[in-house]
Design goal:
The protein is mostly helical. The protein has seven helices and two strands; from the N terminus they run αββαααααα. It folds into two domains: 72 residues; 71 residues. It has a two-stranded antiparallel ribbon with strand order 1-2. A hairpin with a 2-residue loop joins strand 1 and strand 2. Helix 6 packs antiparallel against helix 7. Pfam families: Phage_CP76. GO terms for molecular function: DNA binding. This is Bacteriophage phi gp55-like protein. InterPro entries: Phage_186_CII-like (IPR009679).
Length: 169
């Protein structure tokens, strides 16, 4: 269901509305599918994400549950953008060994190289287009995510070492 969004809606309002109304699961979609998953009627959920409705508002806990159920994080990114922050998905925790740590380190460095290459190519003609700026942003986010994966592994090693010392003490 594509709809022209009123110009007075904020990015957060638009993201909440689109998260609900663009959701699809099987034959159902939108508030009809998501409402029951959140323990609400379709009408209530539709009203909660409708900025024109003054009687219903989506609560913060419901906003989190909504995003998890829909596996759609536009609302999170709209919040982040509005507050001049970024959101990057953290890696799942996995066992850490020397090879895995080295793999994460080299992946991080490879992403850094990719980011530098995208920047280098974008500046080849001494100007940057909007498409090139978006490519730099995407490459940069991938680089940051690779660093966070590496950092997560380092923290796991430190936690394991602390636990080992506690047991031996």
């Amino acid at each position: 269901m594509l709809r022209e969004i009123p110009s007075h809606w904020t990015p957060v309002q638009e993201a909440a509305w689109r998260t609900v109304h663009e959701f699809r699961k099987g034959m159902k979609g939108g508030a009809e599918a998501l409402g029951p998953m959140l323990g609400k009627s379709a009408g209530t959920l539709s009203n909660e994400v409708n900025p024109e409705s003054s009687s219903h508002k989506l609560g913060l806990e419901d906003a989190i549950t909504l995003q998890l159920m829909a596996q759609d994080y536009r609302l999170l990114h709209a919040f982040s953008h509005t507050l001049h922050h970024i959101s990057i998905q953290l890696p799942d925790a996995e066992p850490v060994g020397d090879v895995e740590l080295l793999d994460k380190f080299s992946a991080w460095q490879a992403k850094m190289g990719c980011t530098c290459e995208v920047i280098h190519q974008s500046l080849a003609d001494h100007r940057v287009t909007l498409t090139e700026a978006r490519a730099i942003k995407t490459a940069g986010y991938r680089h940051i995510q690779a660093f966070l994966e590496f950092l997560s592994r380092i923290e796991q090693l430190a936690e394991a070492e602390d636990a080992r010392r506690t047991i031996l003490a």
